[in-house]
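Design job #97: recover the sequence.
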């Protein structure tokens, strides 16, 4: 709701400023006002007043050093990413909030006439504020990391879709990933009648992913959806390439999480080592 209201209250000039921050966030932790002035033709005073207004709406965070600099907040980047999806004709309407985790905020939307899911990445916000990435030319703002995380998820979904049971990726802009809405429930919320079959289906999907060279990286009862038709994997920002340093341990952890859950909940015993061998055998 709040996001929709904020969206509707923004004027053309506000969007231009947000656009300028987006373009420059890769080069500056706090985008200097002169970079924005160059792109918007505002005077110093006009821009400062606008930035104060945007900060009071919690869309940007301003910082005075030798100059005035500004950066997105999670909310600011999210609303700007939504704008880009609307401009690209991918989103017509924002629906309701369906999930709010540490790493993301998830909404339903209407996309090309159909209900879809819009996931805004926030990679551990606000704790990630401290994890700043050093670059030759300085430091990046944490919101840049949320864009990378969204891109990673989108690219992984694109690679897997059609082979592995994952939501169809529709679009990616900024920290937002637009994807198909899966009408299913998280594994931990359902009482399965055929847990053996479902576990087998999950292992089968892990195996298919492995064959495509991908390890999920965060597989658990919270990131597996189930319905009458089958199982679906979601939430890919931590995915790894098979063969990448540490990927074998991560695969082991993924499978271990699943086996432990089925043991605890349904008393099913399945050997970890044997299951891993089966997955890697091809
Ligand atoms: P997080 O990393 O924050 O947990 P998830 O990708 O797991 O983010 O999404 C959070 C919740 O949103 C999920 O547990 C699920 O309920 C819902 N969700 C996410 N993607 C979809 C989707 N494509 N279809 C249906 N529900 C989804």
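Job complete. Output follows.
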């Amino acid at each position: 709701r709040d996001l929709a209201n904020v969206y509707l209250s923004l004027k053309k000039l506000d969007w231009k400023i947000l656009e300028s921050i987006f373009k420059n966030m890769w080069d500056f932790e706090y985008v200097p006002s002169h970079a924005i002035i160059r792109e918007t033709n505002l005077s110093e005073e006009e821009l400062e007043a606008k930035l104060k207004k945007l900060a009071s709406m919690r869309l940007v965070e301003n910082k005075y050093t030798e100059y005035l600099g500004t950066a997105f907040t999670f909310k600011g980047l999210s609303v700007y990413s939504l704008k880009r999806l609307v401009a690209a004709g991918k989103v017509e309407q924002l629906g309701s909030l369906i999930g709010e985790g540490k790493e993301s905020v998830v909404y339903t939307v209407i996309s090309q006439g159909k209900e879809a899911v819009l996931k805004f990445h926030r990679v551990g916000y606000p704790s990630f504020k401290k994890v700043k990435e050093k670059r030759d030319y300085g430091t990046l703002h944490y919101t840049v990391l949320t864009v990378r995380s969204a891109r990673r998820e989108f690219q992984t979904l694109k690679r897997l879709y059609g082979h592995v049971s994952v939501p169809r990726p529709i679009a990616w802009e900024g920290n937002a990933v637009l994807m198909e809405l899966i009408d299913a429930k998280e594994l931990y919320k359902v009482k399965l009648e055929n847990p053996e079959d479902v576990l087998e289906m999950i292992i089968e999907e892990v195996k298919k992913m492995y064959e495509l060279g991908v390890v999920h990286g965060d597989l658990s009862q919270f990131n597996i959806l189930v319905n009458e038709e089958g199982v679906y994997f979601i939430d890919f920002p931590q995915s790894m390439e098979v063969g990448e340093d540490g990927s074998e341990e991560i695969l082991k952890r993924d499978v271990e999480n699943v086996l432990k859950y089925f043991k605890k909940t349904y008393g099913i015993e399945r050997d970890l080592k044997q299951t891993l061998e089966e997955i890697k055998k091809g």
